[in-house]
Amino acid sequence: MSTGRGNDDAGRVSVFLAIAFFGVLAVIGAAADVPGLWRAMLYASNVATEAAPAGGQAVDVEHTAATGEHQVDPAAAVEAANDYLAAAGVEGTVSLSEDLTEITVAVTYEYEPQILGLFGMPPREVSATRTAALLTG
Length: 137
Known about the structure:
Blueprint: H1 12-56, H2 61-67, H3 74-88, E1 91-96, E2 102-111, E3 124-133
Antiparallel strand pairs: 1-2, 2-3
Helix pairs in contact: 1-3
């Protein structure tokens, strides 16, 4: 028994399924990589938040004893913050205020997309900057 339609729709289901498959993969990729990017942003923020006080603990004791003014030892503060960044596996820069009472850490961290990277999404760089101030009193 013939329906009279012939084979006009042959292969159309396969094309639809192929397109739908890539759409589903894109949704799954976004569901996996967006939280991953968020975690990378939080990690960069946490490392910067912890590295700044690590450097700020390097108080210049001799200067404080001699003058009563609190400030960090510049070399020791930068070294302590950079050591923290290296231990965390993150690159960053450390800077001090002119009066040596504040230390600022700027962190950059690269997130490599796990699933969307297969579709050509390049790695994303996230950054965070935090400042720690010496508190006295």
